[in-house]
Write a structure and sequence with these properties.
The complex is a heterodimer. Chain A is mostly helical. Chain A has a domain of 38 residues. Chain A contains three helices and no strands. The radius of gyration of chain A is 11 Å and the shape is globular. Chain B is mainly α. Chain B has one domain: Heme Oxygenase, Chain A, CATH 1.20.910. Chain B is globular, with a radius of gyration of 18 Å. The chains are: A mainly alpha, B mainly alpha.
Chain lengths: 59, 223
């Protein structure tokens, strides 16, 4: 199962069809430990944080 | 198959994991009451930055301990020694900036850091001591990566109508962090990182992004 599939199954990614091919590639390169944490910490980053919003300012 | 440079892998992680924190930060800066919120943002920054030098010292010492038998630690130690010097005293600068907003050193030190700040920094102490000091590079990538332009803070000071001196440390970091960021990217590409190191760095980036978002998010709820 790919990382994207795991994250969809875990409810982290709601709609994989919205992901660009580049984003799918980036997500599928994550380690198993990172994916596991993303699933267990679902919601901490926000509902749509893996979908990408472009770069904005940080403090 | 094209080998992706480690620096690009790190930037990909920042793109994936950094959105929530950046969105919170963007929303805070866009608030009409940013004048009231900015001192609270600066207090959070102080609570994070006051931990930087001790954390860098710990990571440097751990890297030196491991260096004889660990090529990643050997490559890491000189960078951490230099960066510890570069970051030294910046907590004092932030106290001066807070002072320009009427927040004394005693008030800044009395404010209890949230569990989010403690957890974010505390995780680094754990990983550095018990896993590998390379974890700190993920933390630094989040805090120093992709810095805003100094002009952003000049405009923010004007918008807030606050003493420009209260933005001195952020403006300094906007100037120098671009160089620090490039140094860090070069280091990522120079270190002989294995998959387990990259996974640790990824978790470190993820935890730091979560910590920063969680630390700042309550400020959005201020009336």
């Amino acid at each position: 199962m790919s990382n994207v599939d795991t994250l969809v199954k875990g409810g982290v990614i709601k709609d994989a069809s919205q992901l660009s091919a580049d984003m799918v590639s980036k997500i599928n390169s994550l380690s198993a430990d990172e994916v596991s944490h993303l699933v267990s910490a679902k919601g901490k980053l926000g509902d749509d944080d893996l979908q990408g919003h472009g770069k904005v300012m940080m403090i | 198959m094209t080998l992706v440079p480690t620096s690009q892998v790190v930037q990909d992680r920042l793109l994936l994991y950094g959105q929530a924190w950046k969105r919170v930060s963007r929303d805070l800066w866009a608030r009409p009451d940013i004048r009231e919120i900015y001192p609270e943002m600066l207090k959070v920054s102080f609570q994070v930055i006051r931990a930087s030098t001790p954390l860098l010292s710990l990571a440097r010492d751990r890297a030196i301990e491991l260096a004889a038998t660990d090529p990643v630690a050997a490559g890491l130690a000189p960078y951490l020694a230099q960066h510890e010097q570069e970051e030294r005293g910046h907590d004092g600068w932030l106290l001066e900036d807070l002072g320009k907003l009427g927040i004394s050193e005693a008030m800044a030190l009395e404010a209890l850091p949230s569990p989010h700040v403690a957890g974010m920094v505390g995780a680094q102490h754990y990983w550095v001591r018990h896993t590998h000091p390379v974890a700190i590079l993920g933390y630094l990538a989040v805090l120093e990566g992709e810095p805003p332009e100094e002009a952003f803070f000049v405009e923010a000071a004007r918008k807030c109508g606050l003493d420009e001196g209260a933005f001195s440390t952020l403006r300094y970091h906007a100037r120098v962090d671009r160089g620090h960021w490039q140094d860090l990217l070069d280091l990522f590409d120079a270190l002989p990182l294995e998959p387990r190191h990259l996974s640790l760095i990824g978790l470190s980036i993820l935890n730091t992004c979560e910590g920063m978002a969680a630390s700042l998010r309550p400020l959005l709820g201020r009336a």
